[in-house]
Amino acid sequence: MKKFLSLSILFLFFVMGAVAQENKNYVMKIQKKDTLLSIPVAQIDSIYFEEQPQQGDLTFDINVSNITSGSADIVITPSDDTAPYYYAISDSVGKNNRDNNYNGSWYELEVGWWTYLSQFYSMTWQQVAAQFLTTGQHTADIQEDYGGRLMWDTPYYVYCFGMDTEGNLTSDITEKEFRTTKPVPSDNEITVTIKQELSDGVMIDVATTNDDTYFIDCQKTSYVDYYLDQYNGSKDQMFYHFFSSISSMVNDQYFHSGDQTDLKAVASTSDADYYIIICGFNDGPTTDIQLIPFHTAAQ
Q1: Residues of the chain whose pLDDT is less than 50?
Q2: What sign does the CA torsion over 231, 234, 240, 245 have?
Protein backbone atom coordinates (compact mmCIF):
# COMPACT_ATOMS: atom_id res chain seq x y z
CA MET A 1 0.00 0.00 0.00
CA LYS A 2 2.82 2.38 0.87
CA LYS A 3 4.45 1.83 -2.51
CA PHE A 4 1.16 2.47 -4.33
CA LEU A 5 0.57 5.67 -2.35
CA SER A 6 4.09 6.93 -3.13
CA LEU A 7 3.59 6.34 -6.84
CA SER A 8 0.20 8.05 -6.72
CA ILE A 9 1.65 11.13 -5.03
CA LEU A 10 4.51 11.24 -7.52
CA PHE A 11 2.11 10.99 -10.43
CA LEU A 12 -0.04 13.76 -8.95
CA PHE A 13 3.07 15.93 -8.59
CA PHE A 14 3.91 15.44 -12.25
CA VAL A 15 0.37 16.36 -13.32
CA MET A 16 0.33 19.47 -11.18
CA GLY A 17 3.73 20.46 -12.51
CA ALA A 18 2.52 20.06 -16.07
CA VAL A 19 -0.49 22.31 -15.36
CA ALA A 20 1.69 24.89 -13.67
CA GLN A 21 4.16 25.10 -16.54
CA GLU A 22 2.07 27.81 -18.18
CA ASN A 23 3.12 30.25 -15.46
CA LYS A 24 6.47 29.00 -14.22
CA ASN A 25 9.46 27.23 -15.68
CA TYR A 26 9.41 23.91 -13.78
CA VAL A 27 12.12 21.26 -14.12
CA MET A 28 11.57 17.60 -13.24
CA LYS A 29 14.48 16.01 -11.34
CA ILE A 30 15.14 12.27 -11.55
CA GLN A 31 17.84 10.75 -9.37
CA LYS A 32 19.35 7.35 -10.24
CA LYS A 33 22.27 6.41 -8.01
CA ASP A 34 24.93 9.05 -8.72
CA THR A 35 23.21 10.44 -11.82
CA LEU A 36 20.79 13.37 -11.65
CA LEU A 37 18.63 14.06 -14.70
CA SER A 38 16.90 17.39 -15.23
CA ILE A 39 14.02 17.59 -17.71
CA PRO A 40 12.04 20.81 -18.35
CA VAL A 41 8.38 20.03 -17.66
CA ALA A 42 7.41 21.95 -20.82
CA GLN A 43 9.16 19.26 -22.86
CA ILE A 44 7.22 16.36 -21.32
CA ASP A 45 4.34 15.11 -23.45
CA SER A 46 3.15 12.39 -21.08
CA ILE A 47 4.11 10.58 -17.88
CA TYR A 48 3.12 7.03 -17.02
CA PHE A 49 4.35 4.00 -15.13
CA GLU A 50 4.81 0.66 -16.82
CA GLU A 51 5.13 -2.60 -14.95
CA GLN A 52 8.27 -4.50 -15.94
CA PRO A 53 8.14 -8.28 -16.45
CA GLN A 54 8.88 -10.20 -13.29
CA GLN A 55 12.38 -11.62 -13.04
CA GLY A 56 13.25 -14.90 -11.43
CA ASP A 57 10.44 -17.16 -12.70
CA LEU A 58 12.42 -18.23 -15.77
CA THR A 59 15.53 -20.24 -14.91
CA PHE A 60 18.23 -21.97 -16.94
CA ASP A 61 20.41 -25.03 -16.63
CA ILE A 62 23.71 -24.76 -18.49
CA ASN A 63 25.66 -27.97 -19.04
CA VAL A 64 29.13 -28.00 -20.63
CA SER A 65 30.64 -31.42 -21.40
CA ASN A 66 33.28 -33.16 -23.51
CA ILE A 67 35.71 -30.33 -22.81
CA THR A 68 38.95 -30.54 -24.77
CA SER A 69 41.74 -28.07 -25.40
CA GLY A 70 39.85 -26.60 -28.37
CA SER A 71 36.16 -27.33 -27.96
CA ALA A 72 33.27 -28.45 -25.77
CA ASP A 73 29.61 -29.41 -26.03
CA ILE A 74 26.94 -27.10 -24.63
CA VAL A 75 23.32 -27.68 -23.62
CA ILE A 76 21.15 -24.80 -22.37
CA THR A 77 17.78 -25.87 -20.95
CA PRO A 78 15.25 -23.16 -19.99
CA SER A 79 12.49 -23.88 -17.47
CA ASP A 80 9.97 -22.58 -20.02
CA ASP A 81 10.38 -23.79 -23.61
CA THR A 82 8.28 -20.93 -24.97
CA ALA A 83 10.09 -18.05 -23.27
CA PRO A 84 12.58 -16.09 -25.44
CA TYR A 85 16.12 -15.77 -24.17
CA TYR A 86 19.62 -14.79 -25.21
CA TYR A 87 22.85 -16.74 -24.76
CA ALA A 88 26.51 -16.19 -25.59
CA ILE A 89 30.04 -17.41 -24.88
CA SER A 90 32.88 -15.15 -23.76
CA ASP A 91 36.50 -15.42 -22.69
CA SER A 92 38.29 -13.57 -19.88
CA VAL A 93 38.78 -10.50 -22.09
CA GLY A 94 35.01 -10.17 -22.43
CA LYS A 95 34.56 -10.77 -18.71
CA ASN A 96 37.06 -8.02 -17.86
CA ASN A 97 35.26 -5.67 -20.22
CA ARG A 98 32.00 -6.53 -18.45
CA ASP A 99 33.45 -5.91 -15.00
CA ASN A 100 35.30 -2.70 -15.87
CA ASN A 101 32.77 -1.01 -18.13
CA TYR A 102 29.33 -2.55 -17.60
CA ASN A 103 28.87 -2.85 -13.84
CA GLY A 104 29.61 -6.57 -13.96
CA SER A 105 26.45 -7.23 -16.00
CA TRP A 106 26.41 -9.40 -19.12
CA TYR A 107 23.05 -7.80 -19.96
CA GLU A 108 24.46 -4.26 -19.89
CA LEU A 109 27.44 -5.38 -21.96
CA GLU A 110 25.15 -6.86 -24.62
CA VAL A 111 22.93 -3.76 -24.62
CA GLY A 112 26.08 -1.73 -25.31
CA TRP A 113 26.91 -4.00 -28.24
CA TRP A 114 23.37 -3.97 -29.64
CA THR A 115 23.28 -0.18 -29.31
CA TYR A 116 26.50 0.03 -31.29
CA LEU A 117 25.10 -2.24 -34.01
CA SER A 118 21.80 -0.39 -34.19
CA GLN A 119 23.41 2.73 -35.69
CA PHE A 120 24.39 0.76 -38.80
CA TYR A 121 20.95 -0.72 -39.45
CA SER A 122 18.54 2.16 -38.72
CA MET A 123 17.05 0.07 -35.94
CA THR A 124 16.64 0.43 -32.21
CA TRP A 125 18.89 -1.71 -30.06
CA GLN A 126 15.79 -3.64 -28.99
CA GLN A 127 15.07 -4.50 -32.62
CA VAL A 128 18.67 -5.64 -33.09
CA ALA A 129 18.57 -7.71 -29.91
CA ALA A 130 15.35 -9.41 -30.96
CA GLN A 131 17.20 -10.98 -33.91
CA PHE A 132 19.37 -12.94 -31.46
CA LEU A 133 16.65 -14.32 -29.19
CA THR A 134 15.86 -18.01 -29.16
CA THR A 135 13.50 -20.41 -27.40
CA GLY A 136 13.64 -23.99 -26.18
CA GLN A 137 16.64 -26.14 -25.44
CA HIS A 138 19.86 -25.23 -27.24
CA THR A 139 22.43 -27.92 -28.03
CA ALA A 140 25.65 -27.35 -29.96
CA ASP A 141 29.37 -27.84 -30.30
CA ILE A 142 30.46 -24.66 -28.58
CA GLN A 143 32.67 -23.72 -31.57
CA GLU A 144 29.47 -23.15 -33.56
CA ASP A 145 28.35 -20.47 -31.09
CA TYR A 146 31.78 -19.00 -30.41
CA GLY A 147 32.64 -18.71 -34.09
CA GLY A 148 35.77 -20.86 -34.14
CA ARG A 149 38.12 -23.01 -32.13
CA LEU A 150 38.69 -22.24 -28.48
CA MET A 151 42.10 -21.51 -27.01
CA TRP A 152 43.75 -24.18 -24.88
CA ASP A 153 43.98 -24.02 -21.07
CA THR A 154 41.70 -20.97 -21.02
CA PRO A 155 38.64 -19.97 -18.95
CA TYR A 156 35.37 -19.39 -20.83
CA TYR A 157 31.93 -18.27 -19.76
CA VAL A 158 28.56 -19.37 -21.07
CA TYR A 159 25.77 -17.02 -20.00
CA CYS A 160 22.12 -16.52 -20.76
CA PHE A 161 19.13 -14.49 -19.65
CA GLY A 162 15.47 -14.24 -20.51
CA MET A 163 14.53 -11.17 -22.48
CA ASP A 164 11.40 -10.02 -24.29
CA THR A 165 11.29 -8.26 -27.64
CA GLU A 166 11.18 -4.89 -25.87
CA GLY A 167 14.61 -5.56 -24.38
CA ASN A 168 13.36 -6.16 -20.83
CA LEU A 169 15.05 -8.78 -18.67
CA THR A 170 12.65 -11.58 -17.77
CA SER A 171 14.99 -13.68 -15.65
CA ASP A 172 18.13 -13.55 -13.59
CA ILE A 173 21.40 -13.91 -15.50
CA THR A 174 22.79 -17.46 -15.42
CA GLU A 175 26.51 -18.02 -15.94
CA LYS A 176 28.61 -21.19 -16.29
CA GLU A 177 32.40 -21.04 -16.22
CA PHE A 178 34.61 -23.80 -17.63
CA ARG A 179 38.22 -24.16 -18.64
CA THR A 180 39.61 -25.84 -21.72
CA THR A 181 42.23 -28.51 -21.10
CA LYS A 182 45.93 -28.45 -21.84
CA PRO A 183 46.97 -30.17 -25.10
CA VAL A 184 48.19 -33.75 -24.78
CA PRO A 185 51.98 -33.75 -25.40
CA SER A 186 53.43 -35.49 -28.43
CA ASP A 187 56.82 -37.20 -28.61
CA ASN A 188 57.18 -36.20 -32.24
CA GLU A 189 60.65 -34.83 -32.99
CA ILE A 190 60.52 -32.22 -35.75
CA THR A 191 63.62 -31.19 -37.71
CA VAL A 192 63.61 -28.32 -40.21
CA THR A 193 66.18 -27.83 -42.97
CA ILE A 194 66.22 -24.50 -44.80
CA LYS A 195 66.82 -25.07 -48.52
CA GLN A 196 66.29 -21.67 -50.11
CA GLU A 197 65.46 -18.17 -48.89
CA LEU A 198 63.03 -16.43 -51.25
CA SER A 199 61.78 -12.85 -51.42
CA ASP A 200 58.32 -14.04 -50.32
CA GLY A 201 59.22 -16.84 -47.95
CA VAL A 202 61.49 -19.83 -47.55
CA MET A 203 61.67 -23.38 -48.92
CA ILE A 204 62.21 -26.06 -46.30
CA ASP A 205 62.28 -29.79 -45.71
CA VAL A 206 60.65 -31.15 -42.56
CA ALA A 207 61.59 -34.48 -41.01
CA THR A 208 59.46 -36.05 -38.26
CA THR A 209 59.56 -39.19 -36.11
CA ASN A 210 55.83 -39.88 -36.32
CA ASP A 211 52.70 -38.72 -38.14
CA ASP A 212 51.34 -36.40 -35.43
CA THR A 213 50.07 -33.06 -36.75
CA TYR A 214 52.27 -29.99 -36.53
CA PHE A 215 51.73 -26.27 -37.13
CA ILE A 216 53.99 -24.11 -39.28
CA ASP A 217 54.05 -20.42 -40.12
CA CYS A 218 56.57 -17.59 -40.34
CA GLN A 219 56.49 -14.17 -38.72
CA LYS A 220 58.81 -11.19 -38.63
CA THR A 221 61.58 -11.40 -36.06
CA SER A 222 60.62 -8.00 -34.64
CA TYR A 223 57.07 -9.21 -33.94
CA VAL A 224 58.15 -12.43 -32.25
CA ASP A 225 60.94 -10.81 -30.24
CA TYR A 226 58.60 -8.09 -29.00
CA TYR A 227 56.23 -10.62 -27.44
CA LEU A 228 59.06 -12.75 -26.14
CA ASP A 229 60.21 -9.64 -24.27
CA GLN A 230 56.67 -8.98 -23.06
CA TYR A 231 56.43 -12.51 -21.66
CA ASN A 232 59.93 -12.73 -20.19
CA GLY A 233 61.18 -15.02 -22.95
CA SER A 234 58.32 -17.53 -22.72
CA LYS A 235 57.79 -19.11 -26.12
CA ASP A 236 54.58 -20.74 -24.86
CA GLN A 237 53.01 -17.40 -23.92
CA MET A 238 54.28 -15.74 -27.08
CA PHE A 239 52.74 -18.51 -29.17
CA TYR A 240 49.45 -18.31 -27.24
CA HIS A 241 49.19 -14.60 -28.03
CA PHE A 242 50.21 -15.13 -31.64
CA PHE A 243 47.82 -18.01 -32.28
CA SER A 244 44.87 -16.29 -30.58
CA SER A 245 45.37 -13.33 -32.93
CA ILE A 246 45.13 -15.50 -36.06
CA SER A 247 42.87 -18.33 -34.86
CA SER A 248 39.87 -17.15 -36.88
CA MET A 249 41.97 -17.28 -40.07
CA VAL A 250 43.76 -20.59 -39.47
CA ASN A 251 42.99 -23.24 -42.07
CA ASP A 252 44.38 -26.58 -43.19
CA GLN A 253 47.39 -25.09 -44.95
CA TYR A 254 48.93 -24.22 -41.56
CA PHE A 255 48.99 -27.90 -40.56
CA HIS A 256 51.01 -30.86 -41.81
CA SER A 257 51.97 -34.34 -40.74
CA GLY A 258 54.89 -36.61 -41.54
CA ASP A 259 57.94 -35.71 -43.60
CA GLN A 260 57.58 -32.83 -46.06
CA THR A 261 59.89 -31.93 -48.96
CA ASP A 262 60.08 -28.53 -50.65
CA LEU A 263 57.51 -27.00 -48.35
CA LYS A 264 57.13 -23.24 -48.67
CA ALA A 265 56.57 -21.01 -45.64
CA VAL A 266 55.17 -17.74 -46.96
CA ALA A 267 56.41 -14.32 -45.84
CA SER A 268 54.95 -10.92 -46.74
CA THR A 269 58.10 -8.75 -46.87
CA SER A 270 61.31 -9.11 -48.86
CA ASP A 271 64.79 -8.45 -47.44
CA ALA A 272 63.58 -8.86 -43.84
CA ASP A 273 64.37 -10.99 -40.80
CA TYR A 274 61.88 -13.75 -40.04
CA TYR A 275 61.31 -16.77 -37.85
CA ILE A 276 59.82 -20.05 -38.96
CA ILE A 277 57.42 -20.98 -36.14
CA ILE A 278 56.86 -24.71 -35.91
CA CYS A 279 55.51 -27.06 -33.26
CA GLY A 280 53.37 -30.13 -32.83
CA PHE A 281 49.73 -29.10 -32.63
CA ASN A 282 46.48 -30.70 -31.52
CA ASP A 283 44.18 -27.84 -30.45
CA GLY A 284 47.30 -26.33 -28.92
CA PRO A 285 51.08 -26.90 -28.97
CA THR A 286 52.08 -30.50 -28.24
CA THR A 287 55.85 -30.16 -28.64
CA ASP A 288 58.47 -27.51 -27.97
CA ILE A 289 57.90 -24.37 -30.05
CA GLN A 290 60.81 -23.92 -32.44
CA LEU A 291 61.81 -20.47 -33.74
CA ILE A 292 64.10 -20.89 -36.74
CA PRO A 293 65.57 -17.62 -38.13
CA PHE A 294 65.93 -16.78 -41.80
CA HIS A 295 66.18 -13.68 -43.99
CA THR A 296 63.98 -13.18 -47.03
CA ALA A 297 65.87 -12.38 -50.24
CA ALA A 298 65.81 -8.92 -51.76
CA GLN A 299 63.65 -8.49 -54.83
Answers
A1: 1-10, 12-13, 20-21, 33-34, 52-53, 55
A2: positive
Q: Give the Cα separation of 228 and 218 in Å (integer).
A: 15
The per-residue pLDDT for 24 is: 63
Helix 235-246 vs helix 221-230: crossing angle, to nearest 10: 120
Strands 290-295 and 155-162 come out as unpaired
178 close to 64: Cβ distance less than 8 angstroms: yes
Can you give the pLDDT at residue 33? Answer: 46
Distant-in-sequence, close-in-space partners of 259: CB < 8 Å, separation ≥ 6: 205, 206, 207, 208
Cβ neighbour number for residue 6 with a 10 Å cutoff:
10
pLDDT for the residue numbered 185: 97
Cβ neighbours of residue 244 closer than 8 Å, sequence gap 6 or more: 151
How far apart CA 81 and CA 77 sit, in angstroms, is 8
Round to whole Å and give the CA distance between 150 and 229. Answer: 25
Q: Residues with Cβ < 8 Å from 8, sequence gap 6 or more?
A: none
